[in-house]
Amino acid sequence: MQGWIQLHRKILKSDMWRNFNAKQRDVTITLLLMASHKGNRWEYGGEIHEVQPGQFVTSLDSIEDQCAKDVSIQNIKTTLTKLKRWGFLDWEPLPNNRGRIITITNWEKYQRMPEDKEQPEPKPEPAPKQKEKDGKEPPEKKSSTPYDIEFENLWQEYPKKKGKAKARVAYRRHRKNGVSEEDFRAALDRYKTEVQQKGTPQQYIKHGSTFFNSGFEDYLEEEPTPDNLMNITERSYTTPGADDTQKYLDALFG
After folding, report:
1. pTM of the predicted model, to two decimals?
2. Quick one: the chain helix, strand, coil %, rounded to 5?
Protein backbone atom coordinates (compact mmCIF):
# COMPACT_ATOMS: atom_id res chain seq x y z
CA MET A 1 0.00 0.00 0.00
CA GLN A 2 1.45 3.36 -1.10
CA GLY A 3 0.51 7.01 -0.92
CA TRP A 4 -0.53 9.24 1.95
CA ILE A 5 -3.56 10.70 3.70
CA GLN A 6 -4.52 14.20 4.73
CA LEU A 7 -5.02 14.82 8.44
CA HIS A 8 -6.68 18.08 9.36
CA ARG A 9 -5.58 19.85 12.52
CA LYS A 10 -9.16 20.60 13.49
CA ILE A 11 -9.50 16.97 14.55
CA LEU A 12 -7.73 18.02 17.75
CA LYS A 13 -10.75 20.13 18.68
CA SER A 14 -13.40 17.56 17.80
CA ASP A 15 -15.45 16.01 20.60
CA MET A 16 -14.86 12.53 19.19
CA TRP A 17 -11.07 12.86 19.32
CA ARG A 18 -11.14 14.34 22.82
CA ASN A 19 -13.22 11.41 24.08
CA PHE A 20 -10.89 8.76 22.63
CA ASN A 21 -8.01 7.24 24.55
CA ALA A 22 -4.61 6.61 22.98
CA LYS A 23 -5.46 3.11 21.70
CA GLN A 24 -8.70 4.27 20.13
CA ARG A 25 -6.86 7.10 18.40
CA ASP A 26 -4.31 4.58 17.13
CA VAL A 27 -7.07 2.47 15.61
CA THR A 28 -8.71 5.52 14.02
CA ILE A 29 -5.53 6.64 12.24
CA THR A 30 -4.78 3.05 11.19
CA LEU A 31 -8.21 2.74 9.56
CA LEU A 32 -7.61 5.94 7.59
CA LEU A 33 -4.28 4.58 6.39
CA MET A 34 -5.85 1.28 5.32
CA ALA A 35 -8.65 2.85 3.24
CA SER A 36 -8.38 2.81 -0.54
CA HIS A 37 -7.55 6.17 -2.08
CA LYS A 38 -9.40 5.42 -5.33
CA GLY A 39 -11.79 2.86 -6.73
CA ASN A 40 -10.23 -0.57 -6.70
CA ARG A 41 -10.86 -4.30 -6.88
CA TRP A 42 -9.90 -6.10 -3.71
CA GLU A 43 -9.32 -9.83 -3.31
CA TYR A 44 -10.20 -11.10 0.13
CA GLY A 45 -11.10 -14.60 1.30
CA GLY A 46 -10.78 -15.98 -2.23
CA GLU A 47 -13.33 -13.49 -3.61
CA ILE A 48 -13.03 -10.27 -5.60
CA HIS A 49 -14.67 -7.19 -4.07
CA GLU A 50 -15.06 -3.83 -5.72
CA VAL A 51 -14.48 -0.88 -3.42
CA GLN A 52 -14.88 2.88 -3.82
CA PRO A 53 -12.54 5.61 -2.51
CA GLY A 54 -12.60 5.50 1.29
CA GLN A 55 -13.60 1.82 1.44
CA PHE A 56 -11.60 -1.32 2.16
CA VAL A 57 -12.17 -4.97 2.95
CA THR A 58 -10.49 -6.21 6.12
CA SER A 59 -10.88 -8.20 9.33
CA LEU A 60 -10.25 -7.55 12.99
CA ASP A 61 -7.04 -9.59 12.80
CA SER A 62 -5.75 -7.53 9.87
CA ILE A 63 -6.45 -4.29 11.71
CA GLU A 64 -4.69 -5.63 14.79
CA ASP A 65 -1.60 -6.41 12.70
CA GLN A 66 -1.38 -2.77 11.60
CA CYS A 67 -1.89 -1.23 15.06
CA ALA A 68 0.54 -0.87 17.96
CA LYS A 69 1.39 -4.06 19.85
CA ASP A 70 -0.65 -3.07 22.92
CA VAL A 71 -3.90 -2.72 20.89
CA SER A 72 -6.16 -5.75 21.34
CA ILE A 73 -9.07 -7.12 19.31
CA GLN A 74 -11.44 -5.83 21.99
CA ASN A 75 -9.92 -2.35 21.64
CA ILE A 76 -10.59 -2.50 17.91
CA LYS A 77 -14.21 -3.63 18.36
CA THR A 78 -14.87 -0.87 20.85
CA THR A 79 -13.30 1.75 18.56
CA LEU A 80 -15.31 0.58 15.53
CA THR A 81 -18.52 0.83 17.54
CA LYS A 82 -17.66 4.34 18.72
CA LEU A 83 -16.60 5.50 15.26
CA LYS A 84 -19.86 4.26 13.79
CA ARG A 85 -21.80 6.04 16.52
CA TRP A 86 -19.96 9.28 15.82
CA GLY A 87 -20.68 8.94 12.09
CA PHE A 88 -16.98 8.67 11.23
CA LEU A 89 -17.42 5.38 9.38
CA ASP A 90 -19.83 2.60 8.58
CA TRP A 91 -19.23 -1.08 8.11
CA GLU A 92 -21.08 -4.22 7.13
CA PRO A 93 -19.99 -7.86 7.44
CA LEU A 94 -19.11 -10.06 4.50
CA PRO A 95 -20.96 -13.37 3.98
CA ASN A 96 -19.83 -16.27 6.19
CA ASN A 97 -18.10 -13.86 8.59
CA ARG A 98 -15.08 -13.66 6.32
CA GLY A 99 -14.46 -10.03 7.18
CA ARG A 100 -16.16 -6.69 6.71
CA ILE A 101 -16.31 -3.76 4.30
CA ILE A 102 -15.51 -0.51 6.08
CA THR A 103 -16.51 2.84 4.58
CA ILE A 104 -14.95 6.09 5.84
CA THR A 105 -17.66 8.77 5.85
CA ASN A 106 -16.93 12.03 3.95
CA TRP A 107 -13.74 10.58 2.45
CA GLU A 108 -14.07 12.68 -0.68
CA LYS A 109 -14.45 15.86 1.38
CA TYR A 110 -11.35 15.43 3.53
CA GLN A 111 -9.04 13.11 1.59
CA ARG A 112 -9.35 14.19 -2.00
CA MET A 113 -5.90 15.25 -3.12
CA PRO A 114 -5.33 18.72 -4.63
CA GLU A 115 -4.40 17.28 -8.02
CA ASP A 116 -7.80 15.54 -8.14
CA LYS A 117 -9.74 18.74 -7.56
CA GLU A 118 -11.06 20.69 -10.48
CA GLN A 119 -8.92 23.74 -10.99
CA PRO A 120 -10.55 26.92 -12.34
CA GLU A 121 -9.55 27.67 -15.88
CA PRO A 122 -6.95 30.44 -16.03
CA LYS A 123 -8.23 33.68 -17.45
CA PRO A 124 -6.75 34.36 -20.89
CA GLU A 125 -4.27 37.18 -21.11
CA PRO A 126 -5.82 40.19 -22.85
CA ALA A 127 -4.45 40.81 -26.30
CA PRO A 128 -2.30 43.92 -26.81
CA LYS A 129 -5.18 45.68 -28.59
CA GLN A 130 -7.43 45.05 -25.60
CA LYS A 131 -4.91 46.61 -23.26
CA GLU A 132 -4.74 49.76 -25.39
CA LYS A 133 -8.47 49.93 -26.04
CA ASP A 134 -9.14 52.31 -23.17
CA GLY A 135 -6.41 54.64 -24.38
CA LYS A 136 -4.28 54.21 -21.29
CA GLU A 137 -0.60 53.59 -21.60
CA PRO A 138 0.97 50.57 -19.89
CA PRO A 139 2.62 51.41 -16.58
CA GLU A 140 6.27 52.34 -16.83
CA LYS A 141 9.08 50.97 -14.78
CA LYS A 142 10.07 53.42 -12.11
CA SER A 143 13.52 54.91 -12.27
CA SER A 144 15.53 56.83 -9.71
CA THR A 145 18.02 58.63 -11.99
CA PRO A 146 18.28 62.41 -11.47
CA TYR A 147 16.84 63.15 -14.92
CA ASP A 148 13.85 60.90 -14.30
CA ILE A 149 13.12 62.53 -10.96
CA GLU A 150 13.21 65.96 -12.62
CA PHE A 151 10.99 64.72 -15.42
CA GLU A 152 8.41 63.28 -13.02
CA ASN A 153 8.12 66.61 -11.23
CA LEU A 154 7.62 68.46 -14.51
CA TRP A 155 5.22 65.86 -15.87
CA GLN A 156 2.94 66.28 -12.87
CA GLU A 157 2.45 69.92 -13.88
CA TYR A 158 1.99 69.40 -17.60
CA PRO A 159 -1.63 70.06 -18.69
CA LYS A 160 -2.02 67.19 -21.19
CA LYS A 161 -0.37 63.95 -20.10
CA LYS A 162 -0.09 62.07 -23.38
CA GLY A 163 2.97 60.18 -24.62
CA LYS A 164 4.82 60.01 -21.32
CA ALA A 165 7.34 57.37 -22.42
CA LYS A 166 8.43 59.36 -25.46
CA ALA A 167 8.47 62.56 -23.43
CA ARG A 168 10.79 60.98 -20.87
CA VAL A 169 13.25 59.86 -23.56
CA ALA A 170 13.22 63.33 -25.13
CA TYR A 171 13.81 65.00 -21.76
CA ARG A 172 16.83 62.82 -21.05
CA ARG A 173 18.27 63.63 -24.48
CA HIS A 174 17.86 67.38 -24.10
CA ARG A 175 19.29 67.36 -20.58
CA LYS A 176 22.37 65.51 -21.80
CA ASN A 177 22.71 68.05 -24.62
CA GLY A 178 22.85 70.96 -22.19
CA VAL A 179 19.25 72.13 -21.72
CA SER A 180 18.82 72.79 -18.01
CA GLU A 181 15.95 71.82 -15.76
CA GLU A 182 15.33 75.54 -15.17
CA ASP A 183 14.92 76.08 -18.93
CA PHE A 184 12.32 73.33 -19.12
CA ARG A 185 10.47 74.63 -16.09
CA ALA A 186 10.47 78.20 -17.39
CA ALA A 187 9.19 77.03 -20.78
CA LEU A 188 6.50 74.95 -19.12
CA ASP A 189 5.35 77.86 -16.98
CA ARG A 190 5.13 80.13 -20.03
CA TYR A 191 3.16 77.55 -21.98
CA LYS A 192 0.75 76.94 -19.10
CA THR A 193 0.20 80.68 -18.80
CA GLU A 194 -0.49 80.96 -22.53
CA VAL A 195 -2.98 78.08 -22.41
CA GLN A 196 -4.76 79.66 -19.48
CA GLN A 197 -4.88 83.18 -20.91
CA LYS A 198 -6.03 82.06 -24.36
CA GLY A 199 -8.42 79.44 -23.03
CA THR A 200 -6.94 76.85 -25.35
CA PRO A 201 -9.37 73.89 -25.74
CA GLN A 202 -8.08 70.59 -24.42
CA GLN A 203 -7.88 69.00 -27.85
CA TYR A 204 -5.49 71.70 -29.04
CA ILE A 205 -3.07 71.54 -26.13
CA LYS A 206 0.21 69.94 -27.16
CA HIS A 207 0.71 66.32 -26.18
CA GLY A 208 3.37 65.89 -23.54
CA SER A 209 5.55 63.99 -26.00
CA THR A 210 5.37 66.92 -28.43
CA PHE A 211 6.21 69.56 -25.85
CA PHE A 212 9.17 67.73 -24.33
CA ASN A 213 10.52 66.74 -27.73
CA SER A 214 10.65 70.12 -29.42
CA GLY A 215 7.62 72.20 -28.46
CA PHE A 216 9.31 73.62 -25.38
CA GLU A 217 11.83 75.46 -27.59
CA ASP A 218 9.13 77.93 -28.63
CA TYR A 219 8.80 79.02 -25.00
CA LEU A 220 12.44 79.41 -24.03
CA GLU A 221 13.50 82.94 -23.07
CA GLU A 222 15.22 84.70 -25.94
CA GLU A 223 18.84 85.65 -25.37
CA PRO A 224 19.57 89.40 -25.61
CA THR A 225 20.82 90.30 -29.12
CA PRO A 226 21.40 93.63 -30.89
CA ASP A 227 18.12 93.11 -32.79
CA ASN A 228 16.20 92.55 -29.57
CA LEU A 229 17.77 95.60 -27.97
CA MET A 230 16.90 97.65 -31.06
CA ASN A 231 13.27 96.60 -30.86
CA ILE A 232 13.11 97.37 -27.19
CA THR A 233 14.80 100.77 -27.70
CA GLU A 234 12.50 101.68 -30.57
CA ARG A 235 9.47 100.88 -28.44
CA SER A 236 10.91 102.91 -25.52
CA TYR A 237 11.95 106.01 -27.48
CA THR A 238 9.30 106.81 -30.01
CA THR A 239 10.48 110.43 -30.61
CA PRO A 240 14.20 110.47 -29.92
CA GLY A 241 16.09 113.74 -29.68
CA ALA A 242 19.84 114.24 -29.73
CA ASP A 243 20.25 113.03 -26.19
CA ASP A 244 17.90 110.15 -26.82
CA THR A 245 19.87 109.14 -29.88
CA GLN A 246 23.05 109.01 -27.85
CA LYS A 247 21.31 106.86 -25.22
CA TYR A 248 20.10 104.56 -28.01
CA LEU A 249 23.62 104.19 -29.38
CA ASP A 250 24.98 103.52 -25.90
CA ALA A 251 22.37 100.86 -25.32
CA LEU A 252 23.06 99.30 -28.72
CA PHE A 253 26.84 99.22 -28.69
CA GLY A 254 27.69 99.53 -25.00
Report:
1. 0.43
2. 55, 10, 35
